[in-house]
Design a protein that fits this description.
Layout lengths: L8 H15 L1 H7 L13 H21 L8 H22 L13 H9 L7 H30 L6 H15 L8 H6 L7 H30 L7 H13 L5 H26 L6 H11 L2 E3 L1 H19 L13 E5 L9 E3 L9 E5 L6 E3 L4 H7 L4 H10 L6 H4 L5 H17 L6 H26 L17 H10 L5 H13 L6 H20 L5 H9 L6 H9 L2
Parallel strand pairs: 2-4
Antiparallel strand pairs: 1-5, 3-4
Helix pairs in contact: 1-2, 1-3, 3-4, 4-10, 5-6, 6-9, 7-9, 11-12, 11-18, 12-18, 14-17, 17-21, 18-19, 18-21, 19-20, 21-23
Length: 563
């Protein structure tokens, strides 16, 4: 093919998305591709190898595209940089066979199989027919996943024991939601049409049987084999995963020190705010425990869902036109309750590319029916507005000016989580958190992100706890010390802390991106402010920043500074 006829980087990136959807219909459903609704990915080693071949082929096409006239433009250059960084990071993970030990309490193939049903269309009989087809694909998808784990055992590539035990408990809950053998899939199809009732029920039972089969194998074969494996990954594996989640080769020791600096800063602010909530409280978390019992709260699961919806609606009305300029379709976001058996942390799912399914926030209730307000407000500024929803929905809105890849599957975790944490801080800066309860809750959430940097890096690298730490100074981090430290510096209940530590052991390097990503966003804003001086327009900067698509932390500060 001649250079003049070869595609530009954005065309290469968008062709990659098309090919990826063909291999990964879960991604297709999240993007709103109707042809994906009845299928599931191949999670076997062969399926993983096919994804790797696609990445390598795309990188070769990208190298040619970058030689084409026009590829030097900012929009092409930015897309090319992201595509190369992302695919290179993904291949590094694949080549290290990390996909052969993907076990944990979130983000495994089994989790993807279940979660995709929550965003699959259910409006018409044709939608439900596709769901029945997808349910019939569950046994093969889970069998392929099991094949990958079995190959991992053969190669002595073991997942951590603690996440493995948690995974077994989750699979048990998914397969028996009522204690009488009725599984999550049976519950999911209950609202389906009568005309497809028998077909849906049969397919759901087969899906549940596949979950039970996977659970029994993990419990009886996998877990005993990995029981003596380390729970932590060490510096080499951690650096690889950190690159994948953060889009940069971090100085991990500097990042660890930064986590401690933020810890000390936030602790001072928390003590001041706690004094307003409960004068004389021994620690900020004593004051937060007081709020658990005596602070404002929402009673009822439906009620908290509706309250969170109102919080996001109010934020949109207040921020639109003052600090953001929001398109009408970006203004819609839905509050949902997460399905039982989810991890403890709230999460967000972005809209489809055509906005036929809006962005949604999800609250795991963990069996609770009473919800303190202090623990929700800044979290929903993070998950909803102006956090994840404004960024990811804006990417979808301006996808035509970027590339489909930049607006969807090319996302860098630390970019998105950094923006969402920046959004919490922005709401504090704008005066939305003047209430002492809510501001102490915000600081508690900020402290959790600082603690994540400390314990995630600390325990996986087995670093020393600094001499000025009030906690086990001079000792080396272990998962047990990490859980104790997290628990004593968080208002969250024990089951949340347990879930969080399991998460860090399952997906090392991801949890640090919140605080480190926020630092990048703040630094980029400060550099832009210095560049523009008195002419700096925060609203214009926000919209330009949210409209440039994803970037790794390598490039984010530089690009933000130029806006």
């Amino acid at each position: 093919m001649s250079q003049t006829n070869s595609p530009l980087p954005r065309e290469v990136a968008d062709a990659y998305v098309d090919d990826l959807i063909a291999l990964d219909p879960v991604t297709g459903t999240f993007l709103g591709a109707p042809e994906s609704s009845g299928r599931l990915p191949d999670y076997s080693p062969a399926g993983q190898a096919a994804l790797a071949r696609l990445a390598r082929d795309t990188l070769a096409k990208l190298a040619e595209a970058e030689r084409r006239p026009g590829a030097e433009s900012d929009i092409e250059r930015r897309c090319a940089r992201l595509l190369r960084e992302r695919l290179t990071a993904e291949l590094a993970v694949h080549d290290a066979d990390e996909g052969l030990r993907s076990v944990g309490n979130m983000s495994t193939p089994a989790h993807h199989v279940r979660e995709v049903f929550t965003v699959t269309p259910t409006q018409t009989d044709a939608d439900w027919a596709a769901i029945a087809e997808r349910l019939r694909a569950v046994p093969a998808a889970l069998a392929g996943y099991r094949e990958s784990l079995a190959l991992g055992l053969e190669r002595k590539l073991y997942a951590a024991p603690r996440p493995t035990a948690t995974f077994v408990k989750q699979l048990t809950e998914w397969s028996d939601t009522d204690g009488a053998g009725r599984g999550w899939f049976e519950d999911f199809v209950a609202p389906g049409p009568d005309a497809l009732r028998a077909e849906l029920d049969d397919a759901a039972r087969a899906a549940t049987a596949a979950v039970v089969e996977l659970r029994d194998w993990v419990r009886d074969v996998y877990a005993p084999t990995v029981q003596d494996a380390p729970d932590t990954v060490g510096r080499e594996r951690y650096a690889r995963w950190s690159r994948y989640f953060n889009g940069t080769d971090l100085d991990l020791d500097e990042a660890y020190a930064y986590g401690w600096a933020e810890y000390h800063r936030l602790l001072g602010e928390m003590r001041e705010e706690a004094e307003k909530v409960l004068p004389g409280a021994a620690t900020p978390w004593v004051a937060l425990a007081h709020l658990d019992e005596h602070g404002r709260h929402i009673e009822g699961v439906d009620e908290v869902r509706d309250w969170l919806q109102g919080l996001m609606d109010q934020a949109i009305e207040t921020l639109d036109g003052t600090h953001f300029e929001l398109a009408e379709r970006v203004r819609k976001v839905e509050s949902r309750i997460a399905p039982a058996g989810s991890a403890a942390a709230p999460y967000y799912t972005p809209p489809t590319e055509d906005f036929s399914r809006p962005g949604r926030t999800w609250l795991p209730t963990m069996g609770k029916t009473r919800f303190p307000v202090y623990d929700l407000v800044s979290t929903w500024y993070h998950e909803g507005v102006p956090g994840h929803h404004l960024q990811l929905a804006q990417w979808a809105h301006v996808a035509g000016n970027l590339s489909r890849y930049q607006a969807t599957v090319g996302g860098v975790s630390a970019n998105a989580e950094g923006w969402a944490l920046y959004a919490e801080r922005l709401m504090d800066e704008l005066g939305f958190l003047t209430d002492a309860e809510q501001r102490l809750g915000y600081l508690d959430a900020q402290m959790m992100r600082a603690v994540r940097v400390i314990v995630d890096i600390g325990m996986h690298l087995e670093l020393e706890i600094p001499a000025d730490s009030p906690f086990h100074a001079g000792e080396r981090w272990t998962p047990e010390l990490a859980q104790e430290f997290f628990g004593s510096h968080s208002s969250r209940p024990a089951d949340f802390v347990e879930s969080e530590l399991t998460r860090y052991l399952s997906i090392p390097g991801q949890a640090i991106g919140y605080k480190l990503g926020e630092r990048a966003w703040l630094l980029g804003r400060e550099k832009a402010r210095e560049r523009h001086g008195d002419a700096f327009d925060l609203k214009a900067w926000h919209m330009a920043a949210l409209s440039q698509g994803s970037l790794g932390l390598d490039d984010l500060v530089d690009e933000l500074a130029q806006l």
